[in-house]
């Protein structure tokens, strides 16, 4: 997966992530929640691959960000 991402243009991954985040915040209901879960999955994957090199504070911050995104997705699903 990392090799595939490395072959893509540098601007593509952050742009797609930003589009999913904006769509997830703008669209109410399950569609917005799915978009936010896609962003959460990407953040969780990045946290997973960087986990061994992180300090305890870095690990905690990654877990809190993923948990906050999941809570935001759950809230968006009920709107």
Q: Which structural traits does this protein have?
A:
79 residues, mainly alpha, flat
What does this structure look like?
- This protein has a domain at 33-79.
- The protein is built from 4 helices and no strands.
- The protein has helices at 2-7, 12-26, 30-50, 56-77.
- Helix 2 packs antiparallel against helix 3.
- 15% of the residues are buried.
- The model has no long low-confidence stretch (mean pLDDT 92).
Largest sheet: none
Can you count the beta strands?
A: 0
Gross geometry? flat
SS content category: mainly alpha
Order of secondary-structure elements: HHHH
Helix fraction bin = over 70%
> What does the average pLDDT come to?
92
Are there runs of 5+ residues with pLDDT below 50, and where? none
* Structural Rg: 14 Å
Oligomer: single chain
Strand content: under 5%
How many angstroms separate the termini? 34 Å
- Total helices: the number is 4
């Amino acid at each position: 997966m990392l090799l595939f991402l490395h072959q893509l243009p540098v601007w593509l991954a952050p742009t797609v992530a930003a589009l999913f985040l904006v769509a997830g915040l703008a669209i109410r209901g399950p569609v917005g929640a799915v978009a936010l879960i896609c962003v959460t999955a990407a953040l969780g994957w990045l946290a997973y691959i960087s986990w061994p090199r992180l300090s305890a504070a870095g690990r905690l911050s990654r877990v809190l960000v993923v948990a906050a995104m999941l809570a935001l997705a759950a809230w968006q699903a009920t709107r």
